[in-house]
Design a protein that fits this description.
It comes from Ziziphus jujuba. With 107 residues, the protein is mostly helical. It has helices at 25-32, 37-43, 48-53, 57-61, 68-76, 81-84, 87-95; strands at residues 9-10, 16-17, 99-100, 105-106.
Length: 107
């Protein structure tokens, strides 16, 4: 994958044309960073490069609130969760309804 386009498709004239999977994962990740989470998840289903790029922490960290570490500590009462999970997983967990304050509140 990448610059040599080893997976390209040959047309009728024998010219190798690049395919979507030939785009470097790092370039895909830079584009995904500017998209909304539902769009990122849809594009992750296209191919391996998009799926791999959609897992990049810097993409999901830009979607998290600035105080996400504080929120995780209060809602999940776990300080090591931030260190053990990727940013995409943290984002997904924060998007789910979570009860806190002894189960009296839902956030």
């Amino acid at each position: 994958m990448g610059a040599n386009m080893s997976g390209g498709v040959t047309d009728m004239e024998g010219v190798v044309k690049p395919r979507l999977g030939d785009i470097p994962e790092s370039c895909v990740a830079l584009v995904l960073m500017y998209m909304d989470p539902p769009e990122i998840c849809k594009l992750a289903r296209l191919n391996r490069a998009f799926r791999g790029a959609s897992s990049a922490d810097f993409i999901w960290e830009s979607k998290l609130p600035l105080n996400y570490r504080f929120i995780i500590e209060k809602v999940f009462q776990e300080t090591k969760m931030v260190d053990n999970l990727g940013k995409r997983e943290i984002y997904a967990r924060l998007c789910k309804p979570n009860s806190f304050d002894g189960g009296t509140k839902l956030g």
